[in-house]
Amino acid sequence: MTGDAWQHFIDGLDAWTSVPVLTLTAFVETLFPPFPGDVLYISAGGLFCSTGFPTWALWIPGFVGCALATLLLEAAGRGAGPRWIERLVLNGSKGESGMARARSLLARHGAWVLFLSRFIPGIRSLLVVAASWSGMGRTAVLVPSLLSAALWYGLLSVLAVVLGANMGAAAAFMADYGRLSLLILGGIILVLAVLRLTRGRSER
Fold first, then answer.
1. How far, CA to CA in Å, does 45 sit from each of 34, 40, 70, 200?
2. Out of 13-27, 66-80, 96-110, 121-135, least confident range
3. Which of 47, 62, 111, 135 has the most CB atoms at less than 10 Å from its CB?
4. Quick one: pLDDT at residue 24?
5. What are phi and psi of 41, to 5 degrees?
6. CA–CA separation, 63 vs 152, rounded Å?
7. Residue 122, exposed/middle/buried by CB under 10 A (0-12, 13-18, 19+)?
8. In whole angstroms, how far apart are CA 156 and each of 59, 117, 129?
């Protein structure tokens, strides 16, 4: 479906049909990161707010959809979930190379990475699979991941209020955000690597 078709679809929603659409959008985007769920959520959320529905409630359908998908991802990583979920996430996150990056981040920073996972484009769904696959406890995986989801959809709700039902503006913002977040993440990793190297030399 093209951007114009999505915009036409979103423009045709009302307050109540927006709720399942927002929930499904968050669910699919969490399982399959290439799906432009964040852009669609902001756009549909902007319309949702314009109908007079309480703005504070906008984050709820996103959190519910993301939470349900996160439970499936955690189960898939533990080997108790459908295998197609793991394949879907791997295919959408550069396969084994994405999994290797996820495992590397988790090995170094654990729960903090999961807490920030919704703010890391590209491998955020893989992080949940990798964490449960690596043997982290279910609570240790789910608590920071769900807190992250709550904060993320709170942010998207604010953007929906600011940007409205404008898919072009939402897409431009998320593109800039993706570049900036990866730049910040790279800087943090570089600083941590330098600190570790400096500490190792001082201990010799």
1. 20, 8, 21, 49
2. 96-110
3. 62
4. 92
5. -65, -45
6. 8
7. middle
8. 8, 15, 24
Whole-model pTM? 0.74
Supply 21's token pair: 């659409």
For residue 200, CA distances in Å to 116, 191, 204 come to: 27, 14, 7
Q: Does 180 score more than 70 pLDDT?
A: yes
More confident residue, 15 or 48: 48
Structure token digits, residue 90? 């791997």
Distance of CA 37 to the CA centre of its chain: 9
What pLDDT sits at residue 133? 79
Q: Residue type at 198?
A: T
- For 156-183, give the secondary structure using H, E and C: HHHHHHHHCCCHHHHHHHHHHHHHHHHH
Token readout for 188 is 């943090």
Q: Confirm if 99 and 124 have CB atoms less than 8 A apart.
A: no
User: Using an 8 Å Cβ cutoff, are 127 and 113 in contact?
Assistant: yes
Q: If you average pLDDT over every residue of the chain, what do you get?
A: 76
DSSP-derived 3-state class of residue 3: helix
Give the C-alpha separation, 66 to 26, whole Å: 5
The stretch 96-106 carries a mean pLDDT of: 61
pLDDT at 49 over 80: no
Task: Please tell me the distance from the alpha carbon of residue 76 to that of residue 24, in angstroms, as a whole number.
Answer: 19
Residue 65 reports pLDDT greater than 80: yes
According to DSSP, residue 36 is labeled: -
